[in-house]
Amino acid sequence: MIDAMKLCQMAKNNVNEVTTEQLQQAIRDGARVIDVREPAEYTQSHIREAVNMPRGVLEMQLSQHPDVAGYDDALQRIADKPLYLICKTGGRSALAAESLERMGLDKVYSVAGGMSAWAEEKRPVAAGES
After folding, report:
1. Domain count, the chain
2. Roughly what angle, to the nearest 10 degrees, separates helices 4-14 and 91-102?
3. Is residue 102 in a domain?
């Protein structure tokens, strides 16, 4: 049996991780960011540019991302640009990144340390729904 922590660590070993500093620079460059935490977590505090798509429904909702919704080739449009995933500590985002890579996306990045690291480093956050 593999526990959740081990499963997350295995996923982290299989995906591309970036630091919060790298994410902040990517946001300045117009990156797409998806927060894979649950809505209540997102509402409490999130990165202003992030779209909330909980991990449990991410694969099903990805084509509804505001940047690509309504296009017949929504998934291809998502795949054309780097996609950054963030959660609380980096476990769920790593699992989500692994799943999206299986769907064929190759420019997917998980943020190491997640929102915990982002907040610890006093990077800008928003609260409430966006």
Report:
1. 1
2. 50
3. yes
DSSP 84: E
pLDDT digits (tens, 9 = 90+) for 45-87: 999 999 999 999 999 999 989 888 888 898 888 888 999 999 9
> Which of these, 103, 104, 119, lies nearest to 35 by C-alpha position?
119
CATH number for the domain harbouring residue 41: 3.40.250.10
Parent domain of 53:
4-121
User: Which residue type sits at 82?
Assistant: P
- Given a contact cutoff of 8 angstroms between Cβ atoms, the answer to whether 125 and 46 are in contact is yes
Report yes or no on 42 lying in a domain: yes
50 three-class SS: strand
In what order do the strands lie in the sheet containing 32-35?
A: 16-18, 108-111, 83-86, 32-35, 50-52
Under DSSP, the state recorded for 126 is B
Domain annotation covers residue 130: no
Which pTM value belongs to this model? 0.93
Distance (Å, whole) CA 35 – CA 21? 16
